[in-house]
């Protein structure tokens, strides 16, 4: 076959995105084809920089050219990404491509740990990431990012006072912990807590983001309702531990997002504290909190299972020291990276197949 | 000395209650003295059936008689108890002698586990115990007591509809979990949740109780405020795990109870999940969540330290199977029994030294 732009496109039209179930050309993912003697250059625009299929798609492109255009060409796909969104015409934060809530129902199962590490992994992949700590009564994000004593600036932008998020490890952060002293309790009824969240969404200068994560408090109450009433949420991730009392509450969180009037897509489930392995007995797995409960729940509700995270002392230490595991180079960081990739993938699939989420009307 | 009632009383007036720092006679703890030949009988009325000093006081009584009345007498103290109260004139639930809140700030640290086991241990000691599951969005008590499918009766008493608590293992229980299906989320704003708690306190037939425990949700919000505004709480117990993010939230819970307008005495602190010991390596302690953090916090705030509970798979299993550890006969049940005794002791000390708690006025 002659080496023309057209033939290259025809060849690449044979390559499927396995997730989106269409070919790269129809998906508008091929850009900037150029030919230089024996070398073929083009850009593949993936739906997320954290795409777990990046290498697969790259190799498929090379194979398709070799097969359909000629085996002797040198093929140089330039793998980039442009995170997809269903929010570009949203009235609030249209420059934030995806808003992802992290929920659990039960307390202490690792929502904040997963949120922090997901944020780091996504940022490391090259995405622009923000993180809202929506736990007004038990904010963990300032500690987990070692910036407990930071105070966000407030600036006037277009005649309106806006909060400038704290930036740490390349991630934009906001938390009530930046605004109140650590040894004070925030003893507020729901409406006060809700108005803090509204400020974090409406009066904060998030700029352009690929992913804005919302680390939710336990339960299914004011903060959760205010969130879905303030902003259409792209999707939710469920974190659970394997035991019965945690699964029962995860089920409640799932039920909340599935309520017809709320209707936030559930993009995946993470099973945390899946088992403990002592350093001295690396082959032993202690299922302290039970075995496989998260996986079973994901099957029952047909939610993509994003993976297991073991109970590892260094994950807790990383949380307390403010240096998330995902920034290191060990087994835990790999587990979090895997989960981040799978989450990003599910977000892209959701954006390809579903319209934007609708904001919930205020009825209470 | 002659064997008379008076001389026996004089002898027993030498015996101090080490906690209340007064002698048993001034404390009105000696009843029903009788003499039968060589045998001396009397009743010692302790301030709680879970009194950890029971044996000590009994032996002190025998010694005091031997020393002051005569060494040849046979002494038979009958150790009983009458749980003390500062609530006997309270407008709501005056027949409930002590109302104890179990709080943590942080989620998932073991409030419900401690509440359930405390209830069982106190009941096993002979006390009349009730337990309110105040976690409206993540109720664990029905599972932890294996009565998820029970439905409380409603009866008309004096022209008013009252809820009859479920009774399990001799403990009266109420939970939103008895009133809603398990796979439904209770997605309520604060006022709805608060009114459920008000019903649990005001419209439930608790009868006479020595201890009514309230298992609080995480945070410091509506439920906590509604509790202190509805009923004067005798005291609070703080549960924490050792890591920094948990201690930070425990500190917030402590700060809440210490607020001058709330002012609920903090009776003790429990450090849960203190360390993990695998069965194969019983000498190893893995401080997965850190070491000694709970103890340090109790020192810093001068709160009685009630003890540590290790991270043990059987405690989690007991929670999931609805058969609290304290009902068994193992290391964990001993740990919970110890904590129950120390808690009961602190309640008695509080009642001896402080006036009743005042209800918080509704300002919000
Ligand atoms: N896989 C893990 N291994 C070890 N420790 C973990 C793991 N996941 C979380 N932790 C620790 O467990 C504790 C609870 O986790 P985290 O604070 O993330 O839970 P949460 O769901 O956000 O809690 P809350 O409901 O209070 O907001 C933290 O101290 C955290 O560091
Ligand atoms: N010492 C322990 N050893 C092993 N597992 C424990 C221990 N204490 C608690 N657990 C388990 O940990 C989980 C969390 O405990 P629990 O539900 O009592 O916490 P909580 O503070 O009431 O949580 P929430 O904030 O969600 O109400 C439960 O599955 C429980 O069985
Ligand atoms: Mg959290
Ligand atoms: Mg609980």
TrEMBL record, chains A, B:
The keyword DNA repair does not apply. The keyword Metal-binding applies. ATP binds at residues 105-112. Keywords: ATP-binding, Hydrolase, Iron, Iron-sulfur, Metal-binding, Nucleotide-binding. Residues 6-66 form the MIP18 family-like domain. Signal peptide: none annotated. Binds and transfers iron-sulfur (Fe-S) clusters to target apoproteins. Can hydrolyze ATP. Belongs to the Mrp/NBP35 ATP-binding proteins family. In the C-terminal section; belongs to the Mrp/NBP35 ATP-binding proteins family. Homodimer. HAMAP family: Mrp_NBP35 (MF_02040). This is Iron-sulfur cluster carrier protein. It comes from Marivirga lumbricoides.
């Amino acid at each position: 076959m002659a080496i023309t732009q057209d033939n290259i496109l025809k060849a690449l039209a044979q390559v499927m995105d396995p997730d989106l179930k269409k070919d790269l050309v129809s998906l508008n993912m091929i850009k900037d084809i150029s030919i230089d003697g024996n070398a073929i250059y083009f850009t593949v625009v993936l739906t997320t920089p954290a795409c777990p299929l990046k290498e697969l798609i790259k190799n498929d492109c090379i194979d398709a050219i070799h097969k359909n255009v000629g085996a002797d060409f040198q093929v140089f796909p330039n793998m980039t990404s442009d995170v997809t969104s269903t929010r570009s015409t949203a009235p609030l934060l249209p420059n934030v491509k995806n808003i992802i809530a992290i929920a659990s129902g039960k307390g202490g199962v690792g929502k904040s740990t997963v949120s922090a590490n997901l944020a780091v992994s996504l940022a490391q992949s090259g995405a622009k990431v923000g993180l809202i700590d929506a736990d007004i009564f038990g904010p963990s994000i300032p500690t987990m990012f070692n910036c407990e004593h930071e105070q966000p600036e407030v600036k006037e932008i277009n005649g309106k006072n806006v909060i400038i998020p704290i930036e740490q490890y390349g991630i934009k952060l906001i938390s009530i912990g930046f605004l109140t002293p650590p040894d004070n309790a925030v003893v507020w009824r729901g409406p006060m807590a809700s108005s803090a969240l509204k400020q974090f969404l409406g009066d904060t200068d998030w700029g352009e983001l690929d992913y804005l994560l919302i680390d939710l408090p336990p339960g299914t109450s004011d903060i959760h309702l205010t969130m879905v009433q303030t902003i259409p949420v792209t999707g939710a991730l469920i974190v659970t531990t394997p035991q019965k009392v945690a699964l029962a509450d995860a089920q409640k969180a799932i039920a909340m997002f599935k309520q017809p009037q709320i209707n936030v897509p559930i993009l995946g489930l993470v099973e945390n504290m899946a088992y403990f392995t002592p350093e001295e007995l690396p082959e032993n797995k202690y299922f302290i909190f039970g075995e496989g409960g998260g996986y079973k729940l994901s099957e029952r509700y047909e939610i993509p299972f994003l993976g297991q995270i073991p109970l590892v002392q260094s994950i807790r230490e990383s949380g307390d020291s403010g240096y998330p595991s995902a920034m290191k180079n060990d087994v835990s960081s790999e587990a979090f990276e895997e989960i981040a990739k799978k989450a990003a993938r599910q977000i892209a699939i959701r954006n390809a197949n579903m319209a934007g989420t609708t904001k919930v009307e205020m009825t209470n």
